[in-house]
Specification:
single chain, about 260 residues, alpha+beta, Beta-Lactamase, Alpha-Beta Plaits, 6-stranded mixed β-sheet, 3-stranded antiparallel β-sheet, 8 helices, elongated, PAS-assoc_C, GGDEF domain-containing protein, diguanylate cyclase activity, GGDEF_dom
Protein backbone atom coordinates (compact mmCIF):
# COMPACT_ATOMS: atom_id res chain seq x y z
CA UNK A 1 0.00 0.00 0.00
CA UNK A 2 1.14 3.54 -0.62
CA UNK A 3 2.26 5.28 2.56
CA UNK A 4 -0.04 8.38 2.41
CA UNK A 5 -3.15 6.23 1.75
CA UNK A 6 -2.52 3.92 4.70
CA UNK A 7 -1.74 6.84 6.98
CA UNK A 8 -5.06 8.53 6.18
CA UNK A 9 -6.97 5.29 6.77
CA UNK A 10 -5.34 4.74 10.17
CA UNK A 11 -5.81 8.35 11.23
CA UNK A 12 -9.53 8.33 10.37
CA UNK A 13 -10.35 4.87 11.72
CA UNK A 14 -12.66 4.77 14.73
CA UNK A 15 -12.34 1.03 15.22
CA UNK A 16 -8.62 0.99 15.96
CA UNK A 17 -7.70 1.69 19.58
CA UNK A 18 -5.82 4.92 20.29
CA UNK A 19 -2.66 3.08 21.36
CA UNK A 20 -2.58 0.91 18.23
CA UNK A 21 -3.38 3.92 16.06
CA UNK A 22 -0.48 5.83 17.59
CA UNK A 23 1.87 2.89 17.01
CA UNK A 24 0.78 2.52 13.39
CA UNK A 25 1.13 6.23 12.67
CA UNK A 26 4.61 6.11 14.18
CA UNK A 27 5.42 3.24 11.81
CA UNK A 28 4.22 5.40 8.90
CA UNK A 29 6.40 8.26 10.08
CA UNK A 30 9.39 5.93 10.35
CA UNK A 31 8.76 4.71 6.80
CA UNK A 32 8.81 8.28 5.54
CA UNK A 33 12.09 8.73 7.37
CA UNK A 34 13.60 5.72 5.62
CA UNK A 35 13.46 3.05 8.35
CA UNK A 36 13.94 -0.19 6.37
CA UNK A 37 12.28 -2.67 8.77
CA UNK A 38 9.92 -2.46 11.76
CA UNK A 39 8.12 -4.94 14.00
CA UNK A 40 5.23 -4.20 16.36
CA UNK A 41 2.74 -6.16 18.48
CA UNK A 42 -0.70 -4.61 17.96
CA UNK A 43 -4.22 -5.23 19.27
CA UNK A 44 -6.41 -4.76 16.19
CA UNK A 45 -10.15 -5.08 15.40
CA UNK A 46 -11.43 -7.98 13.28
CA UNK A 47 -14.59 -8.46 11.22
CA UNK A 48 -16.80 -9.82 14.02
CA UNK A 49 -16.17 -6.74 16.17
CA UNK A 50 -13.70 -8.40 18.54
CA UNK A 51 -9.97 -7.70 18.78
CA UNK A 52 -6.96 -9.92 18.29
CA UNK A 53 -3.22 -9.54 18.80
CA UNK A 54 -1.11 -9.39 15.65
CA UNK A 55 2.60 -9.13 14.99
CA UNK A 56 3.22 -6.55 12.28
CA UNK A 57 6.31 -6.82 10.07
CA UNK A 58 6.80 -3.72 7.94
CA UNK A 59 9.38 -3.40 5.15
CA UNK A 60 10.20 -0.21 3.24
CA UNK A 61 10.34 -0.23 -0.55
CA UNK A 62 12.07 2.84 -1.97
CA UNK A 63 11.90 4.36 -5.44
CA UNK A 64 14.76 4.71 -7.91
CA UNK A 65 15.83 7.94 -6.26
CA UNK A 66 15.89 6.27 -2.84
CA UNK A 67 12.80 8.04 -1.52
CA UNK A 68 10.16 5.96 0.35
CA UNK A 69 7.33 4.75 -1.88
CA UNK A 70 5.74 1.62 -0.45
CA UNK A 71 5.41 -0.04 2.90
CA UNK A 72 5.03 -3.79 2.57
CA UNK A 73 3.35 -5.17 5.67
CA UNK A 74 2.63 -8.66 6.95
CA UNK A 75 0.37 -9.44 9.92
CA UNK A 76 0.80 -12.65 11.91
CA UNK A 77 -1.96 -13.71 14.33
CA UNK A 78 -0.29 -14.13 17.74
CA UNK A 79 -3.44 -14.18 19.90
CA UNK A 80 -2.78 -17.64 21.36
CA UNK A 81 0.82 -16.73 22.14
CA UNK A 82 -0.25 -13.46 23.82
CA UNK A 83 -2.87 -15.24 25.91
CA UNK A 84 -0.31 -17.76 27.12
CA UNK A 85 2.06 -14.93 28.06
CA UNK A 86 -0.71 -13.02 29.88
CA UNK A 87 -1.75 -16.16 31.76
CA UNK A 88 1.86 -16.78 32.76
CA UNK A 89 2.25 -13.16 33.89
CA UNK A 90 -0.91 -13.46 36.01
CA UNK A 91 0.36 -16.72 37.50
CA UNK A 92 3.67 -15.11 38.39
CA UNK A 93 1.76 -12.42 40.30
CA UNK A 94 -0.02 -14.95 42.52
CA UNK A 95 0.91 -16.40 45.88
CA UNK A 96 0.80 -20.13 45.18
CA UNK A 97 -0.72 -21.09 48.54
CA UNK A 98 -3.51 -18.53 48.99
CA UNK A 99 -3.94 -17.54 45.29
CA UNK A 100 -3.87 -13.90 46.36
CA UNK A 101 -1.46 -11.44 44.77
CA UNK A 102 2.12 -11.83 45.94
CA UNK A 103 4.24 -9.10 47.52
CA UNK A 104 5.94 -8.13 44.25
CA UNK A 105 2.59 -7.71 42.48
CA UNK A 106 1.22 -5.64 45.36
CA UNK A 107 4.26 -3.37 45.29
CA UNK A 108 4.02 -2.90 41.51
CA UNK A 109 0.33 -2.06 41.78
CA UNK A 110 0.93 0.35 44.66
CA UNK A 111 3.68 2.22 42.83
CA UNK A 112 1.53 2.51 39.70
CA UNK A 113 -1.60 3.65 41.54
CA UNK A 114 0.28 6.30 43.50
CA UNK A 115 1.39 7.76 40.19
CA UNK A 116 -2.17 7.70 38.82
CA UNK A 117 -3.99 9.27 41.79
CA UNK A 118 -6.23 12.21 40.92
CA UNK A 119 -7.13 15.21 43.06
CA UNK A 120 -9.44 14.12 45.87
CA UNK A 121 -8.27 10.50 45.80
CA UNK A 122 -6.23 8.59 48.34
CA UNK A 123 -4.47 5.26 48.16
CA UNK A 124 -5.22 3.27 51.30
CA UNK A 125 -3.07 0.41 52.49
CA UNK A 126 -3.95 -2.18 55.09
CA UNK A 127 -1.48 -4.62 56.62
CA UNK A 128 -2.91 -7.57 58.55
CA UNK A 129 -0.63 -9.67 60.73
CA UNK A 130 -1.77 -12.70 62.71
CA UNK A 131 -1.31 -12.53 66.49
CA UNK A 132 0.71 -15.35 68.07
CA UNK A 133 0.39 -17.44 64.92
CA UNK A 134 3.29 -19.67 65.95
CA UNK A 135 1.26 -20.71 68.96
CA UNK A 136 -1.49 -22.01 66.68
CA UNK A 137 1.02 -24.08 64.70
CA UNK A 138 2.67 -25.39 67.86
CA UNK A 139 -0.62 -26.24 69.61
CA UNK A 140 -2.68 -27.63 66.74
CA UNK A 141 -0.16 -28.47 64.01
CA UNK A 142 0.72 -26.97 60.66
CA UNK A 143 -2.42 -28.28 58.89
CA UNK A 144 -4.41 -26.12 61.30
CA UNK A 145 -2.13 -23.16 60.63
CA UNK A 146 -2.57 -23.61 56.89
CA UNK A 147 -6.34 -23.76 57.35
CA UNK A 148 -6.30 -20.50 59.31
CA UNK A 149 -4.27 -18.73 56.62
CA UNK A 150 -6.62 -19.98 53.90
CA UNK A 151 -9.62 -18.74 55.89
CA UNK A 152 -8.03 -15.34 56.46
CA UNK A 153 -7.22 -15.02 52.74
CA UNK A 154 -10.80 -15.93 51.86
CA UNK A 155 -12.24 -13.41 54.31
CA UNK A 156 -10.01 -10.61 53.08
CA UNK A 157 -11.01 -11.22 49.48
CA UNK A 158 -14.74 -11.81 50.02
CA UNK A 159 -15.19 -8.77 52.28
CA UNK A 160 -12.93 -6.42 50.29
CA UNK A 161 -14.42 -3.22 48.81
CA UNK A 162 -14.88 -3.03 45.05
CA UNK A 163 -11.62 -2.22 43.31
CA UNK A 164 -9.39 -3.37 46.17
CA UNK A 165 -6.30 -5.50 45.58
CA UNK A 166 -5.65 -8.20 48.16
CA UNK A 167 -2.29 -9.91 48.58
CA UNK A 168 -0.09 -11.99 50.82
CA UNK A 169 3.00 -10.09 51.86
CA UNK A 170 4.70 -13.14 53.34
CA UNK A 171 4.17 -15.70 56.08
CA UNK A 172 1.10 -14.72 58.11
CA UNK A 173 1.08 -11.12 56.86
CA UNK A 174 -1.43 -9.86 54.30
CA UNK A 175 -2.10 -6.54 52.56
CA UNK A 176 -4.92 -4.65 50.86
CA UNK A 177 -4.68 -1.61 48.56
CA UNK A 178 -7.58 0.61 47.56
CA UNK A 179 -7.61 3.86 45.57
CA UNK A 180 -10.78 5.80 46.30
CA UNK A 181 -12.33 9.25 46.72
CA UNK A 182 -14.38 8.02 49.67
CA UNK A 183 -13.40 8.92 53.20
CA UNK A 184 -11.40 6.43 55.21
CA UNK A 185 -14.20 5.39 57.54
CA UNK A 186 -15.48 2.74 55.11
CA UNK A 187 -12.02 1.21 54.74
CA UNK A 188 -11.51 1.23 58.51
CA UNK A 189 -14.89 -0.49 58.90
CA UNK A 190 -13.67 -3.18 56.51
CA UNK A 191 -10.54 -3.58 58.63
CA UNK A 192 -12.57 -3.83 61.84
CA UNK A 193 -14.85 -6.41 60.28
CA UNK A 194 -11.82 -8.50 59.37
CA UNK A 195 -10.67 -8.46 63.00
CA UNK A 196 -14.11 -9.63 64.11
CA UNK A 197 -14.42 -12.34 61.45
CA UNK A 198 -10.94 -13.75 62.09
CA UNK A 199 -12.03 -14.39 65.69
CA UNK A 200 -14.71 -16.74 64.34
CA UNK A 201 -12.27 -19.07 62.54
CA UNK A 202 -12.49 -22.65 63.79
CA UNK A 203 -10.44 -25.80 63.19
CA UNK A 204 -12.52 -28.98 63.27
CA UNK A 205 -15.02 -27.20 65.50
CA UNK A 206 -12.38 -25.91 67.92
CA UNK A 207 -11.71 -22.24 68.64
CA UNK A 208 -7.95 -21.98 68.07
CA UNK A 209 -7.90 -18.34 69.23
CA UNK A 210 -7.13 -16.94 65.79
CA UNK A 211 -6.59 -13.22 66.20
CA UNK A 212 -5.06 -10.48 64.07
CA UNK A 213 -3.76 -6.93 64.26
CA UNK A 214 -4.29 -4.44 61.44
CA UNK A 215 -2.52 -1.23 60.48
CA UNK A 216 -4.00 1.22 57.97
CA UNK A 217 -2.44 4.22 56.24
CA UNK A 218 -3.23 6.50 53.28
CA UNK A 219 -1.50 8.90 50.92
CA UNK A 220 -2.88 11.66 48.69
CA UNK A 221 -1.48 12.50 45.23
CA UNK A 222 2.18 13.53 45.35
CA UNK A 223 2.23 13.07 49.13
CA UNK A 224 4.89 10.39 49.12
CA UNK A 225 6.36 7.20 47.72
CA UNK A 226 5.33 3.58 47.94
CA UNK A 227 7.86 3.05 50.73
CA UNK A 228 6.33 5.91 52.70
CA UNK A 229 2.86 4.37 52.41
CA UNK A 230 4.18 0.93 53.34
CA UNK A 231 6.11 2.29 56.31
CA UNK A 232 3.09 4.26 57.56
CA UNK A 233 0.90 1.14 57.38
CA UNK A 234 3.62 -0.84 59.13
CA UNK A 235 3.81 1.85 61.83
CA UNK A 236 0.04 1.58 62.30
CA UNK A 237 0.41 -2.19 62.63
CA UNK A 238 3.08 -1.68 65.30
CA UNK A 239 0.67 0.62 67.16
CA UNK A 240 -2.00 -2.10 67.05
CA UNK A 241 0.46 -4.63 68.48
CA UNK A 242 1.50 -2.20 71.21
CA UNK A 243 -2.14 -1.52 72.12
CA UNK A 244 -2.81 -5.16 72.98
CA UNK A 245 -3.26 -6.72 69.51
CA UNK A 246 -6.60 -7.89 68.06
CA UNK A 247 -7.42 -4.33 66.92
CA UNK A 248 -7.11 -1.76 64.11
CA UNK A 249 -4.98 1.38 64.12
CA UNK A 250 -4.57 4.16 61.54
CA UNK A 251 -1.44 6.22 60.91
CA UNK A 252 -0.81 9.06 58.48
CA UNK A 253 2.06 11.55 58.47
CA UNK A 254 2.40 11.58 62.23
CA UNK A 255 -1.34 11.58 62.94
CA UNK A 256 -2.65 8.72 65.05
CA UNK A 257 -6.30 7.64 65.18
Amino acid sequence: SRIPEVGDFIRNSRRIRKQARTELLLCMENLRGGTPYQKRDLLLPVADGSERWYELHLILQAGEDGSPVLGIGMLLDIMDQKQRILELEKELQKDHFTRLLNKTAMESYGIRKLGELQAGERLYMLILDMDHFKRINDSYGHPCGDHVLEQVAGLMKSLAPNGARVGRLGGDEFGVLLATERKGEAFLEYAQRLVEQVRQIRWQGTDVLARCSIGVAALRPREGSWMKLYNCADRALYMAKQDGRDCVRFYQAGEEV
